[in-house]
Design brief:
The protein is built from 12 helices and 35 strands. It is an alpha+beta fold. The chain has a 32-stranded mixed β-sheet that branches. Strand 15 and strand 16 form a beta hairpin. Helix 11 runs parallel beside helix 12.
């Protein structure tokens, strides 16, 4: 669009200068201004106003200067002029003019103001009324004879000094302003190469641009021609080397971009947003790009960089039904997302800003989710993060109407596999969900890397399904709800013989060479309003059992949890249990014995001891009574108790013998 405007200005300048030269000594300068204005309006349909003086010049070139020049705007674009310049100077090559060519030595615009605008229907105010211009053109028989060679037009140097340009796109809601504009255009031949360079400030950010086009006339007419473009904006560098055309802004070639920071670039482009974390900077792109007439953008042999992230692949950006649609397939080697100080950007920020106040309360700007829909596949050799390292990973990323889903199709994690989904939904306020499944994860390397904890060994199976709602981390953590479960298969607690410690009440059962072998650790939990509740934590071992229950305040970042280690005498016989309470904030948890429960336990143990004593005394008294009864029976019945015989049997035998004797006597026996 700028080049089209330059083409129109070249025509105006040529006509104005020609009139000045031809009528240098014959026509008054004001009359020259009127003729130039009439010719411009006939050619473009817009009015040209020269409010100041028009003065001829003779040295160093033949030319003229005009002051306070204005070109009217499109009727729908407002009352401000399309172009206003405090002064314009024009110089021509007289010898070339005599030959019939228009060779402009210089054009200088001082303090010009250019107001470019595209309305919601896609019409630009720089598009002149060509129908009117065609009506004003001379008839074919009145113009240049067909066999007359075309005039050669060239522009040795065109300069803009201290200019201002504003571009507004009502359809795309774009508003860009360039101040302190200084530019140079060199056009040795209209049908030959052209060079444009300039500097400015765009929305307060510095801009530098240089461009070379192989055929200026073809480029201005909309034909595709060779183009080289380099620039720097807000610290970001970009380049293009290929072919392009102004008609529908088509392009094909090699592109490159390097962006050290995102926020200044967004400011320059008239948008706002948060800066990316330092681990994702700088951003970079290079590859073969194609832009078609319908606005679709295709990238092949593309290489993307975001900090330590390197991806290669291809992508297509097309216009969907409601938003642009991005499709792509990318692959990468092991990508490194670790921060320089060993804590991830998000984690560091969270840790640094939570403290006693809890989770960060700053608003999360997720508006970018609504800018584009996407369907992207990622295949990575691995992912290094501050908290954990993933092996070979396959991901799918989809965005549909401000709802993003990261599908972890498969990821290697410490000898096991991780799968599941992360969802961020910003359709009606922000909500996030994590639905993850980990299978056969080796605990020792996992906990060593996560927390430098080297005391738990075994394989873990973990299921988590959590949902949070809110526009800040604080709100999300305090609204979490869902459930989950853990199961640790047979393993060891290294450096601690918990069973020996409990059985002997001796803290020396700790240190190198000691361990607690467990059969399993299981538990499930439910989360509501940011509070995790667990009632069934259980560790089982040959001489030990540990149970646990209580609350973990995820939102409030506090603990109220009770564990009960139990030393076992046999498979089902308890020897000792020691309840332990864990309470207080995450940063400074407090550990204390549950004295009430411990008192109840001591009372139970004492009660059992007294019951044992009572049972032993009752058994002793019973045995004594049995012996006294046996002695009395023997005396009264005259029988002796046989070895091993129960007293009841001895009594029955004595009665039977006595009855027998009496019956024999009654019947006349001995």
């Amino acid at each position: 669009m700028v080049m089209r405007l330059i083409k129109a200005l070249v025509a105006v300048v040529s006509g104005l200068a020609l009139l000045v030269i031809l009528a240098l000594f014959l026509i008054p300068t004001q009359r020259i201004a009127q003729i130039a204005a009439q010719q411009f309006e006939a050619a473009t349909g817009r009015s040209l106003t020269i409010a100041g003086d028009v003065s001829p010049s003779f040295y160093p070139v033949i030319g003229a200067s005009a002051e306070q020049i204005s070109i009217s705007n499109a009727p729908w674009a407002g009352d401000d002029p399309l172009l206003h310049a405090a002064r314009m100077e024009v110089g021509l090559d007289l010898a070339a003019l005599i030959r019939g060519d228009i060779q402009i030595e210089r054009v200088i615009l001082q303090a010009p103001t250019l107001d470019l605008r595209r309305n919601a229907q896609g019409q630009g105010n720089w598009e002149f009324d060509r129908a009117r211009a065609a009506t004003a053109s001379p008839a074919p028989d009145q113009g240049t004879p067909p066999d007359t060679p075309a005039r050669q037009v060239s522009l040795a140097l065109a300069q803009i000094e201290n200019g201002r340009l504003r571009f507004r796109d009502d359809g795309a809601q774009t508003d860009l302003t360039l101040d302190a504009l200084a530019a140079e255009l060199r056009l040795p031949a209209l049908a030959g190469p052209a060079t444009l360079s300039g500097t400015a400030r765009i929305n307060g950010q510095p801009l530098a641009l240089s461009a070379q086009v192989a055929n200026a006339q073809g480029f201005l007419s909309g034909a595709v021609t060779a183009l080289t473009l380099e620039g720097r904006i807000a610290g970001a560098e970009f380049a293009f080397d290929g072919r392009a055309g102004l008609e529908n802004l088509t392009a094909e070639g090699r592109a490159r971009a390097d962006i050290p920071a995102l926020r200044p670039l967004m400011q320059a482009l008239g948008t706002s947003g948060d800066e990316l974390d330092a681990i994702y900077l700088p951003l970079g792109f290079q590859g073969q790009v194609t832009r078609t007439g319908d606005g679709a953008l295709y990238a092949r042999e593309a290489s993307l960089r975001a900090g330590g992230l390197r991806l290669n692949g291809a992508a297509d950006l097309t216009q969907g039904s409601a938003r642009p649609m991005l499709r792509g397939q990318f692959s990468g080697d092991v990508i490194d997302l670790r921060s320089a100080n060993g804590s991830s950007g998000a984690g560091a920020a969270g840790a640094g800003s939570t403290g006693p106040q809890g989770w960060p309360r700053e608003r999360i700007d997720a508006d970018a989710l609504g800018l584009v829909d996407a369907d992207i596949g990622l295949t990575l050799a691995g992912v290094r993060m501050d908290g954990v390292t993933l092996g070979a990973t396959r991901l799918g990323v989809s965005i549909d109407n401000a709802r993003a889903v990261v599908d972890i199709q498969d990821a290697a994690l410490f000898g096991g596999r991780l799968s599941g989904q992360f969802v961020a939904n910003n359709r009606a306020g922000l909500s996030v969900r994590a639905d993850l499944r980990a299978r056969n994860i080796a605990l020792l390397p996992l906990l060593t890397e996560l927390a430098d904890y080297r005391r738990l060994q075994g394989n873990a199976n973990i299921d988590i399904n959590l949902l949070g709602v809110g526009n800040s981390v604080h709100a999300i953590m305090n609204s979490l709800r869902g459930d989950g479960a853990i199961r640790f298969d047979q393993g060891e607690i290294i450096g601690l013989d918990l069973a020996g410690m409990l059985r002997n009440l001796d803290l020396s059962y700790m240190g190198e060479g000691t361990r607690t072998v467990y059969d399993s650790i299981t538990g499930s939990f439910a989360v509501q309003d940011g509070v995790l509740r667990n009632d069934d934590l259980r560790l089982t071992a040959s001489r030990l059992s540990v149970t646990g229950r209580g609350n973990v305040g995820i939102g409030a970042r506090n603990l109220d949890y009770r564990i009960v280690p139990v030393a076992l005498r046999g498979a089902d016989e308890e020897l000792l249990r020691v309840p332990l309470m864990i309470t207080g904030p995450w940063e400074e948890p407090r550990f204390r014995l549950d004295m009430e429960a411990l008192a109840r336990e001591q009372l139970r143990i004492e009660q059992e001891r007294l019951e044992d004593i009572a049972r032993e005394e009752a058994q002793r008294l019973e045995e004594r009574a049995r012996r006294e009864a046996a002695d009395r029976l023997e005396r009264e019945l005259g029988v002796e108790r046989e070895e091993g015989e129960r007293i009841e049997d001895t009594l029955r035998r004595g009665v039977e013998e006595e009855l027998g004797r009496r019956l024999r006597g009654f019947l006349g026996g001995d």
